[in-house]
């Protein structure tokens, strides 16, 4: 009876009991099967848990980004992805050589655009490769699906790479499991902004991969890993202009290591191989060209390269000469020759090196640069400095875990943690200067916060587990009284410590779960709306969807002659070319400021002057976006002042104060006369004066600006309205041919 | 002052020579290769100074192939050198294989870039 009772009560602890199993043990033991009954060693248990968590995280990272696909449909949204999609389509249809040598005459009429030379091909080539692989395996996918789902796929890959990066850093100080699992839990929320088919999706993956491989190369000193990091860098250069961050951070890191005296032979091997091979590979991308040896932004890397050669050469000589006096003599001679050679070289090189970095890089170092010099760059909303609310919105708990993580990194300094600290600090600075760059900071912030979380949890769990050991040692050792009394006091304080530790652990997990909820909410609400389809709440609280953009582009596609040229503000250029399949005058590439200024001037002039400009550009149709009926606030009237500024930057005939009243921008009765009669005003408010938009307000009430418009009687002489979408969001006008001569 | 400097230089030269004579032969071969590569690079730069830098990509690829192979050879030397404690458990065959691989990639890229 005793044995039977034991088998019943302890079947959870024994592996499938060898005694005759009763019915109860049959039912219960399968549920207790997993870990304990397998009698796995701790290492294997850990591996199983890790792999499971990693798989879950991978899947989670993928599905978080599917909100918009599930809610609307699988389509390309925003502006830049339309262009990327169009180029990927071209690549799959015409092949690599067609793509590389492509001259596009459908945008920037009449200039055209050399696409092969002016884009970063990484994203397109990756998508095309995935498409060809799937096709080879006989999965009949459409390239659009590959594009739309490519970004989530790469987000999952990025979390994987970040996990390995965390392991590389964490291996040195932390226990494997806590660091691994905490890095994993932070990672799915890594790239809240990677939801569209844009360069950054692939670029952040490449960035993290390059950093991981480089840190691995520095840790192991192997040429093979350095070669891999050079390839990672090549991938990054092919994907995004932000590669400049890598080519500056890595030399900075090398400098810091040299200065703090932590240099070693491994550093030499890693950096040299990566720099030379990486630079050569990067120059294969035509858009980058010779910038690595000519542009000011890349000079830090070259400078550090030469510095490294000199430094290690001196180190080698010092090692060979065991006498310090001789070494000082050597130093004296070499320094004098070096100074002479340096002066000569500097004089010769003045001819070759351009001192101007690109405007965007200058903007990073001097945030006020763009406002004074280049209005186009200042006008892009993604280039604005970041507000604290954006930081809080994107990072939530990570914001205060970040300094904690920095503290832990400093506590356990090693080559890898120094790199992480530098990456974190520099990327946070840049994230503060430009909103878009929060992307680049996110991996660093996640990793550093993960270190904080894992260190805290490790300490807490150690406290929780410690109690079990002490009583046994206290009882088994019958040692001196001091020892036993100290142990006794430890024993006494432990109960509170343990409870405190458990409470803190629970608190930490609660915090993490709150963070996870917040991130899911943010992704669902803020980052999953395709901007091509607008959603709003109707009168009864139901969701109303506006398909105006697509309506307009398809109208263009079906009702205009194939060689028609459309003039609109540059925001919509990519979408018009991709979806409307018509030639545009200016698009989002914004490579030619004068051309954009011409369009801006046309939009801000009186109708007859604008007609001259439009005739000179062969414009057939004009497209404007108007939010007065729906209250949509990103319409052209709200962007109008930028058109004036950009146009006025090149053509002084356009003066911004002409359109303002006492410095105020108005569209109602008190607006400036030039404003009330300019082309943009006329095209937006044509026939709007008769429309009742809101109950209780007079006709012609602009819901986006909240005022009744000033000039309700708009007459067009040189243009005629051909299409207005159902909610008046997009309006298309045809340019009339000139009158017959008498 | 000048006399002490020249005397110092002579002492320096002698001690460097004697210290260098004790390095193993395989390292000396690698050093010779590095000197050859750097020398070739200097010749190319001198040629560019005479005839001008068009086409720039050819010049860059030529010079960078020399500098690149020199740097890789130095890395090989570091990894193979018995005196370096950090690399003592790296078999020299593995170091050489890495060297060959990196050179292969380097020259493939150079050939693409040569134009």
From TrEMBL, chain A:
Entry's localization field: Endoplasmic reticulum membrane
UniProt feature, compositional bias: Polar residues: 1-23
Subunit-level organization: Component of the oligosaccharyltransferase (OST) complex.
Region of interest: Disordered: 1-25
Descriptive protein name: dolichyl-diphosphooligosaccharide--protein glycotransferase
UniProt cross-references to Pfam families, sorted A to Z: STT3, STT3-PglB_core
Top-level taxon of the source organism: Eukaryota
Chief location bin: endoplasmic reticulum
Cofactor: Mg(2+); Mn(2+)
Every Oligosaccharyl transferase STT3 N-terminal domain range: 50-170, 196-448
Keywords on record: Endoplasmic reticulum, Glycoprotein, Glycosyltransferase, Magnesium, Manganese, Membrane, Metal-binding, Transferase, Transmembrane, Transmembrane helix
Occurrences of domain STT3/PglB/AglB core (ranges): 565-623
Organism: Dillenia turbinata
Keyword Endoplasmic reticulum: yes
One cellular component (GO) term of this entry: endoplasmic reticulum membrane
Family assignment from sequence similarity: Belongs to the STT3 family.
Catalysed transformations (reactions): a di-trans,poly-cis-dolichyl diphosphooligosaccharide + L-asparaginyl-[protein] = N(4)-(oligosaccharide-(1->4)-N-acetyl-beta-D-glucosaminyl-(1->4)-N-acetyl-beta-D-glucosaminyl)-L-asparaginyl-[protein] + a di-trans,poly-cis-dolichyl diphosphate + H(+)
Topology relative to the membrane: Multi-pass membrane protein
TrEMBL record, chain B:
Coiled coil: none
Key word Membrane present: yes
GO CC terms, sorted: oligosaccharyltransferase complex
Pfam families reported for this sequence: DAD
Membrane-crossing residue ranges in chain numbering: 32-50, 56-76, 96-114
Membrane topology according to the record: Multi-pass membrane protein
Pathway the protein acts in: Protein modification; protein glycosylation
Keyword check for Membrane: yes
GO biological-process terms attached to the record: protein N-linked glycosylation
InterPro entries given in the database record: DAD/Ost2
Domain of life according to the entry: Eukaryota
Assigned keywords, A-Z: Apoptosis, Endoplasmic reticulum, Membrane, Transmembrane, Transmembrane helix
Subcellular localization, as worded in the UniProt entry: Endoplasmic reticulum membrane
SUBUNIT field: Component of the oligosaccharyltransferase (OST) complex.
Function (record text): Subunit of the oligosaccharyl transferase (OST) complex that catalyzes the initial transfer of a defined glycan (Glc(3)Man(9)GlcNAc(2) in eukaryotes) from the lipid carrier dolichol-pyrophosphate to an asparagine residue within an Asn-X-Ser/Thr consensus motif in nascent polypeptide chains, the first step in protein N-glycosylation. N-glycosylation occurs cotranslationally and the complex associates with the Sec61 complex at the channel-forming translocon complex that mediates protein translocation across the endoplasmic reticulum (ER). All subunits are required for a maximal enzyme activity.
UniProt-listed PANTHER family: DOLICHYL-DIPHOSPHOOLIGOSACCHARIDE--PROTEIN GLYCOSYLTRANSFERASE SUBUNIT DAD1
Family statement: Belongs to the DAD/OST2 family.
Protein name: Dolichyl-diphosphooligosaccharide--protein glycosyltransferase subunit DAD1
């Amino acid at each position: 009876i005793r044995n039977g009772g034991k088998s019943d009560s302890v079947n959870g602890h024994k592996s499938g009991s060898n005694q005759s199993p009763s019915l109860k043990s049959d039912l219960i033991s399968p549920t207790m099967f997993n870990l304990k009954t397998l009698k796995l060693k701790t290492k294997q248990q850990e591996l199983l848990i890790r792999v499971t968590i990693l798989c879950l995280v991978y899947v989670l990272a993928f599905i978080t980004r599917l909100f918009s696909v599930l809610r609307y449909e699988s389509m390309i949204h925003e502006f830049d992805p339309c262009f990327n999609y169009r180029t990927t389509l071209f690549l799959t249809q015409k092949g690599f050589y067609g793509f590389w040598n492509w001259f596009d005459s459908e945008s920037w009429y009449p200039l055209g655009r050399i696409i092969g030379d002016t884009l970063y091909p990484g994203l397109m080539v990756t998508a095309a490769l995935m498409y060809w692989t799937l096709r080879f395996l006989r999965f009949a996918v459409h390239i659009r699906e590959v594009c739309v789902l490519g970004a989530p796929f790469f987000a999952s890959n990025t979390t994987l790479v970040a996990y390995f990066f965390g392991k590389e850093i964490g291996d040195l100080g932390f226990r494997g499991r806590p660091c691994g699992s905490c890095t994993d839990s932070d990672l799915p929320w890594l790239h809240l902004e990677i939801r569209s088919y844009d360069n950054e999706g692939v670029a952040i993956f490449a960035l993290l991969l390059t950093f991981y491989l480089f840190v691995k190369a520095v840790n192991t000193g192997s040429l093979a890993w350095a070669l891999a990091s050079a390839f990672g860098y090549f991938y990054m250069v092919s994907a995004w202009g932000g590669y400049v961050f890598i080519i500056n951070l890595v030399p900075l890191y090398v400098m810091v290591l040299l200065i703090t005296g932590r240099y070693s032979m491994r550093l030499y091997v890693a950096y040299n191989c990566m720099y030379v091979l990486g630079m050569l590979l990067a120059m294969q991308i035509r858009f980058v060209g010779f910038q690595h040896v000519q542009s000011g932004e890349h000079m830090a890397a070259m400078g550090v390269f030469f510095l490294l050669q000199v430094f290690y050469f001196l180190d080698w000589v010092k090692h060979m000469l065991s006498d310090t006096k001789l070494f000082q003599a050597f130093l004296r001679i070499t320094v004098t020759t070096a100074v002479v050679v340096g002066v000569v070289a500097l004089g010769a090189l003045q001819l070759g090196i351009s001192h101007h970095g690109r405007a965007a890089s200058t903007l990073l170092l001097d945030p006020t640069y763009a406002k004074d010099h280049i209005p186009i760059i200042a006008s892009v909303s993604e280039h604005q400095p970041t507000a604290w609310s954006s930081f809080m919105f994107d990072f939530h708990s990570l914001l205060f875990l970040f300094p904690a993580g920095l503290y832990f990194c400093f506590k356990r300094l090693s080559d890898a943690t120094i790199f992480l600290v530098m990456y974190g600090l520099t990327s946070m600075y840049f994230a503060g200067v430009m909103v878009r760059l929060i992307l680049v900071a996110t991996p660093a912030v996640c990793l550093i916060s993960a270190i904080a979380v894992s260190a805290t949890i490790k300490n807490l769990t150690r406290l929780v587990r410690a109690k079990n050991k002490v009583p046994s040692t206290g009882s088994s050792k019958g040692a001196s009284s001091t020892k036993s009394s100290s142990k006794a006091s430890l024993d006494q304080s432990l109960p509170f410590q343990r409870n405190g530790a458990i409470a803190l652990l629970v608190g930490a997990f609660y915090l993490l779960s709150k963070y996870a909820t917040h991130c899911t909410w943010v992704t669902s609400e803020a980052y999953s709306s395709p901007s091509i389809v607008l959603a709003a709440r109707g009168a009864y609280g139901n969701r109303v969807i506006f398909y105006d953009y697509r309506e307009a582009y398809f109208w263009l596609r079906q009702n205009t002659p194939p060689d028609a040229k459309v003039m609109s503000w540059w925001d919509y250029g990519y979408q018009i070319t991709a979806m409307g399949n018509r030639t545009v005058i200016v698009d989002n590439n914004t490579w030619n400021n004068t051309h954009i200024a011409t369009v801006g001037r046309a939009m801000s002039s009186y109708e007859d002057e604008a007609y001259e400009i439009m005739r000179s550009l062969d414009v057939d149709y004009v497209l404007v976006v108007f939010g007065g009926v729906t209250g949509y606030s990103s319409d052209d009237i709200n962007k109008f002042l930028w058109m004036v500024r950009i146009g006025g930057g090149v053509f002084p005939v356009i003066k911004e104060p002409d359109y303002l009243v006492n410095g105020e921008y108005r569209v109602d009765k008190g607006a400036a006369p030039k404003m009330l009669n300019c082309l943009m005003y006329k095209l937006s408010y044509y026939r709007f004066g008769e429309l009742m938009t809101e109950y209780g307000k007079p006709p012609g009430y602009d819901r986006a600006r909240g005022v009744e418009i000033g000039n309700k009687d708009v007459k067009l002489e040189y243009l005629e309205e051909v299409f207005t979408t159902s909610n008046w969001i997009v309006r298309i006008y045809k340019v009339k041919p000139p009158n017959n001569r008498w | 002052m000048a006399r002490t400097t020249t005397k110092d230089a002579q002492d320096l030269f002698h001690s460097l020579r004697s210290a260098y004579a004790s390095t193993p032969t395989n390292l000396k071969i690698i050093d010779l290769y590095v000197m050859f590569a750097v020398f070739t690079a200097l010749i190319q730069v001198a040629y560019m100074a005479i005839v001008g830098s068009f086409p720039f990509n050819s010049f860059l690829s030529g010079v960078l192939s020399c500098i690149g192979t020199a740097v890789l050879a130095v890395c090989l030397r570091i990894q193979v050198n018995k005196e370096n404690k950090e690399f003592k458990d790296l078999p020299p065959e593995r170091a050489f294989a890495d060297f060959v691989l990196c050179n292969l990639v380097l020259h493939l890229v150079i050939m693409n870039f040569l134009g």
